[in-house]
Design a protein that fits this description.
The protein has 9 helices and 7 strands, in the order H-H-H-H-H-E-H-E-E-H-E-H-E-H-E-E. The chain is of the alpha/beta class. A 7-stranded mixed beta sheet has the order 3-2-1-4-5-7-6, with helices on both faces. A hairpin with a 6-residue loop joins strand 6 and strand 7. The longest helix is centred in the middle third of the chain and has 13 residues. The protein is globular and about 45 Å long. The protein starts with a helix and ends in a 6-residue tail after the last strand. The structure holds S-adenosylmethionine. The site of S-adenosylmethionine (SAM) has 25 residues, from helix 6, strand 2 and helix 7. S-adenosylmethionine binds next to helix 6, strand 2 and helix 7.
Length: 241
Amino acid sequence: MTMADSVSVLVAKLGSRSKPDPSWTSKATGCTRERAERAVLEVAAYSASVMELCGNIDRTGRSYYAQFPAPIDLYALVRLVRPRTIVESGVASGVSSAFMLMGAKTNSRGTLHSIDLPVLRTGRPGDESWAVPAGMSSGWATPSSLRVGWDLREGRSEELLVPLLEELGTVDFFCHDSPVDREHFEFEMQAVEPHLGPGSLVVADNTYRRAFGEAARRVGAEAVYRKGSSLGAFRVPADGA
Ligand SMILES: C[S@@+](CC[C@H](N)C(=O)[O-])C[C@H]1O[C@@H](n2cnc3c(N)ncnc32)[C@H](O)[C@@H]1O
């Protein structure tokens, strides 16, 4: 099987939204399309881990926990940016975390610091789609082979994000996927901004476009959206804002 075939198998498993968009990842990072395409193909090396991740999810009787729509592209972004510090807000079952951990593993550098407020599944109507199954905690589906060195903190981002950012200083890669509301989104963008450096990348799902566009412009960048969706990214110019 070629690497491209392996990636197609992963897309079939992860769902059609995960079909890679190298045009987006190349525009978001400033890398060539060829480089972005190569980064996508490399994820084939993690086929067993992705199948384990999906198997862990399937065993709960559901296949959807509001996961990040473009996990393969997220892997490619981490490969293309080669961040030392990665901060994530919104873990749920751990799909996005797993792909960023894979990217950091291939890079042989970078630590993922994740924040998540787990919502427990009650089994009653009204449960959030991302609610954690009984007996599990945030990131429950992420294979143990990827968890080495993962700094996973449970709690509200409103309480944990600023202290984490102050601890880290500079953030090379920030992934927002903790949908609450506009105020929460703006809080995260404003909190992370002073910690971005030249070349840092911000990727966010369920973006409030105006707030995201303004955050990008404030650091001299331009927000780029994936296939007309609300998944956006921007990268601070390498020579600073
Ligand atoms: C859309 S899910 C994240 C999906 C995940 N990125 C993935 O790919 O599997 C959003 C997560 O954010 C968490 N969350 C909600 N409010 C939060 C808050 N105030 N602080 C931190 N996490 C929060 C939810 O409980 C949920 O686990």
